[in-house]
């Protein structure tokens, strides 16, 4: 962990250093310094036996507003993910967005949604500039699996799709729109358990349709047509469209709509779905509607979905066609998608041997959970956002929130910025240029 450590300025407990084996820029912390650190912390915890082939800390991903490293927690030797949220307090909008993501990660309690395991202890408020969150580490993500030569059976596709929908049902029941569902944000471990991650663009749904929502969301290939056409307001249906794109990508092992620009993205969509009616475009901005009406009408060619692969059965294509609907009001909901017959086998496989909600006693039949797809116990509360009107207010409230989360019996961790490993971690960039949001003026 990029140097998690050092005695804290705050007197709430003892922290320690996580010395990182650098994968870039030279040698890592040697056994000597690490041994001294562990020895100093010995009265407070028992360090695990460190295997000789311990994996080095390394960057594993870049999200919308942060970088993620695979690191080792010194308290138990467990490999975890460390997400850095840098430059938090540059503006009121960005600081509230980071605070929202942090609160969401602490709110989530679902097997198919990534949540915070711990937050690193922040420095004194005067030096508080960035946040480090520890989450579970999964070995891969769906993008890496799709582009790999690994065989994907129909059962793989069904169990992946089921878990995506299961996690998304939980998010939507909490009134949360993810707004960046894509294969790279779907983490997968070695036994095919999947978790939705990266909530840097997530927000609570806006019930007032007169209020404008940002169009600078969702990686282009998975962006719903209403956003591509400049809709000022949208719903949880944007996430369902993204899932439909991923479902098609799982079937065909290639990106379903891969365009060079948002306008070309819309062209590819209409080649498959046909030219939308004026009713279908009622959420679009005037410029987008004019653009569509100027072009020669195209008939739908949904039968092309059967050519994706041999796994594109009638049931699969039927569900996919209900997800890839131009009009968001006619698009299938997550709850209805979970009720589709195509998902039944994925549900059966997941709850037979993969989930944590069901169990098999040492002698006897498997005991199944009362509810296979639980909803959130209550909506995610975002009322606090309206009360924060300055960056300093957000900073103070976030610092207080983290302190409340740290009231546990575990030894707290904090960053040691003097570590050589931290320099590599700190220099990591955030988002890849291809993932930056589109210009909101594409139809002008």
Automatic annotation (TrEMBL):
Binding site for ATP: 83
A cellular component annotation (GO) from this entry: cytoplasm
Cofactors: Mg(2+)
Annotated GO biological process: Wnt signaling pathway
MF terms in GO: ATP binding; MAP kinase activity; metal ion binding; protein serine kinase activity
EC number: 2.7.11.24
Enzyme class (EC, first level): transferase
CDD domains: STKc_NLK
Function, as annotated: Has a role in the Wnt signaling pathway controlling the asymmetry of cell divisions during embryogenesis. Operates in the AB and EMS cell lineages influencing cell specification. Required for body wall muscle development, endoderm development, pop-1 asymmetry and T-cell division asymmetry. Component of the beta-catenin-lit-1 complex which promotes the phosphorylation, down-regulation and subcellular relocation of pop-1. Regulates plp-1 nuclear localization in embryos. Plays a role in male tail tip morphogenesis.
Family: Belongs to the protein kinase superfamily. Ser/Thr protein kinase family. MAP kinase subfamily. Belongs to the protein kinase superfamily. CMGC Ser/Thr protein kinase family. MAP kinase subfamily.
Full protein name: Mitogen-activated protein kinase
Originating organism: Aedes aegypti (Yellowfever mosquito)
